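Reader question, answered in our methods column.
A reader sent in the components of a multi-part assembly and asked whether the whole thing could be modeled at once rather than chain by chain. We filled in our standard form and ran it. Here is what they sent:
COMPLEX SIZE: four components
ENTRIES:
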Amino acid sequence: MPHYKLVSRDNHPQNTVIKLGKTQIGKGITIIAGPCAVEDRETMLKTATALSALGVHILRGGAYKPRTSPYSFDGLGKEGLNILAEARKYSGLPFVTELTDVRHIDLLCAYADIIQVGSRNMHNFSLLKELGRIDHPVLLKRGLSATLEEWLLAAEYIMAEGNQNVILCERGIRSFDPYTRNTFDINAIPAMKNLSHLPLIADPSHGTGRRELVAPVARAALAAGADGIMVEVHPQPAQALSDGQQSLTLEEMAQIIAQLKSVTPQLAG
Amino acid sequence: MPHYKLVSRDNHPQNTVIKLGKTQIGKGITIIAGPCAVEDRETMLKTATALSALGVHILRGGAYKPRTSPYSFDGLGKEGLNILAEARKYSGLPFVTELTDVRHIDLLCAYADIIQVGSRNMHNFSLLKELGRIDHPVLLKRGLSATLEEWLLAAEYIMAEGNQNVILCERGIRSFDPYTRNTFDINAIPAMKNLSHLPLIADPSHGTGRRELVAPVARAALAAGADGIMVEVHPQPAQALSDGQQSLTLEEMAQIIAQLKSVTPQLAG
Amino acid sequence: MPHYKLVSRDNHPQNTVIKLGKTQIGKGITIIAGPCAVEDRETMLKTATALSALGVHILRGGAYKPRTSPYSFDGLGKEGLNILAEARKYSGLPFVTELTDVRHIDLLCAYADIIQVGSRNMHNFSLLKELGRIDHPVLLKRGLSATLEEWLLAAEYIMAEGNQNVILCERGIRSFDPYTRNTFDINAIPAMKNLSHLPLIADPSHGTGRRELVAPVARAALAAGADGIMVEVHPQPAQALSDGQQSLTLEEMAQIIAQLKSVTPQLAG
Amino acid sequence: MPHYKLVSRDNHPQNTVIKLGKTQIGKGITIIAGPCAVEDRETMLKTATALSALGVHILRGGAYKPRTSPYSFDGLGKEGLNILAEARKYSGLPFVTELTDVRHIDLLCAYADIIQVGSRNMHNFSLLKELGRIDHPVLLKRGLSATLEEWLLAAEYIMAEGNQNVILCERGIRSFDPYTRNTFDINAIPAMKNLSHLPLIADPSHGTGRRELVAPVARAALAAGADGIMVEVHPQPAQALSDGQQSLTLEEMAQIIAQLKSVTPQLAG
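And here is the structure of the entire assembly that came back:
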């Protein structure tokens, strides 16, 4: 059996809470929302302001995007980071963005509040080790078909180097049914909360790949014990340069938050 | 693309509600509970009476059990049906039990209130057709690795022969992670409720295979829109002849129902 | 760990060989071929005669077809059996056909030389038990997502009732890649030959679902130790009522056999 | 549908052949063998010399090893590269070794003949792009649960930057059966040879994870059209620091090559 040391709840019974301004990830419910990719300044600022008004706590948006094809739009790069920083200033929301290249780590740390490791890099151990040497919180997505053991040990890689600020993110596993893009692994929510003290966020957008399933799976994840949700939102999903099929409109996001407030006291304040 | 006729919500927008005494499956939350297999008269009567007192609506228990090995305990057969009928009399609860052989259909209909099709028989089309010719409600479990399309068409098999009283039951799919027995497919809950008008029950016992995950996944399934849950309960799980690892004690079942009552108005009455 | 008794090579070191007229399944290479379903008398007789001339040993053809949708063509039933019997008379080839309903067992035994259990019935334990009480050889296909353990124990179900004439058939497992219908599990070929003394046939037609992959996967299965292949052949695949996409023409089948003869001395005679 | 440009056989009908000294990868059968990791100088030199005598064409050995746990042995690093270079001098065999960190690319290019991208980095697009800017041949393993489309597009990433010397390597996919470590995808062999002009190597060691299955699956892969095999060999598998369970002894490797020579004319010379 694997030796989980730093990641294990056995060795650290109390929940880890990561503070980020007024937000406490791992205490109450944290809502992260935003577009798949930063596409242009105007859309991003408008989206950020609207999400802030809805009660979202953290902004998401990709400046460097891992794409299956080398010929797909892969993000605005540094320009995207500048736009995200401006969106933070206007909206007051901190932001999370994905690191896709170990050589960008200083650049991303200079801009972002939380560094995301995407599913495709969960097994990129040299990148994980470098993230262990910084202080920024790291949002560690589960790999495409990673076992719980592999996911826990990926977090252990970061923590073993010194950085204890790891946030886990369940985003679905690959399965056989073509109806959904991925299969959101609801079992993983209580299982990981039992096995580890780290905060756990659910990503029902990637976990389903279908807009109409995002809200019910978000509710399910919170009911199962997740510490928050991360949702893709785009003012005009049909025009999105990536992931439009699973992105919610601002109106749909407002409805989700209203629903959650009715059942989750932590959000009502 | 498949032609869903009778099973499809497109052709039948309103929810199907199946009445069984005072219970309405598909309206409010239905709780089904009981042991994996009927093991002996005394235990079954005690369990049934206790579950009735807790507010459970329907009793479950296997008299004919499909087992992977021909050398495993496979149920008490007709004696098990007699015990279930007696448990119904004492507890006032209707019961569901599994049909494993098309030649037993008259026997089971003479005893049971609901006939269950287990995962291993979801593709047993001759059995499905016979179930279409009776009036009893049929609880149709999803196959071990069945797609949503295959599951819908299995229901269509029953309905095409005349019996519209079909209840769907999600019980997890087979995946790669050894940590859980199956992967409960939470996406399937809202997806099937969108695609079909039939009632949908969640089985978090088989969907997880681990006792400590049953309650959170039950809550998740209801939050995602399931019409009820089916849970394995045994007075002494460690002594159970099958599925002990995933069975709850009566005390654990009482806790689940108390939790559900606090969040689900339909159960509070 | 499971107790494999009758199925296990540990308890029965020498290979089981099943004799059927001049054919010995489990000794040398056995070739089974024919259409997915019997469609009409003329086509079946023509196909059988041509396959016999090519050196095929056993004819296949479905009279009762398990179909995902209740509205699909599901075989000619008893008329199909009569056509198969006539094809046997003309071609001199014995035939295998699928049992889909336990109540048809006497009927099929009166006609067929080998009884097939399809993937969808590998877990149909009442059907397996009845097949244990007859003498006919049983071709037991692996279930859609069955583990090797489950497959071995399905054979054990038949053998525990008395019938030792079981032939295993690997036909692919369900996986995540939409490019192929199934993933042919080549590992299962040597693994099952190590674990069991039973003959093992490969079905590259269902194992791939694509015509152009059938020949290379057939060669691979034989190279890995399979005792034979079962291939879907149709004089006009584009007109086939089922499985046309994976059926070979008679010309393609002739090429496969010619290739095999060049590398497999047993076929050259 | 994806646009395969450089990787596609449609746009490049003839097979790509990559020359490496006397070896031509993509023409005839190429055999790559060696330990999972370089463990010490003496063992490596002994292994290399023995493999050269057996007729192996290319040496493998990891100096930087991706390991699931941060506490496992992860290779000798630069010292391992020096040992590999020495083994090349003694044995006359070129070697392939894995790149796990984009920042090591110059170092590895200074030592290795072929650069390997492991399964865990198939989706590491920044690493793939850098490999597109060098001239060394790249052995691109299929990701843990990558579709054929994703694998082809990973090759396209490298080729789009200029490096056309890509060798594909099938090493099994993740599936549900605990009996084998992975499921070797035999369908992928002819499918990828149809879709792409690139050479394709089979890795039956990782594809099965069990020593006794390596030889039959190697034969199967070659029968299905693979251009070669890559096999883990260790003088004393029980003492190996990683992957001992799937490593062959030198004697077992000798047997495999003898078997292959008897059926593969290209190796007989």
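What stands out: Chain B has a mean pLDDT of 95. Chain B touches chain A at residues 145, 147-149, 173, 175-180, 183-187, 189-191, 194, 207-208, 210, 212-213, 216-217, 219-225, 263 (CB under 8 Å).
Send us your own complexes using the same form.
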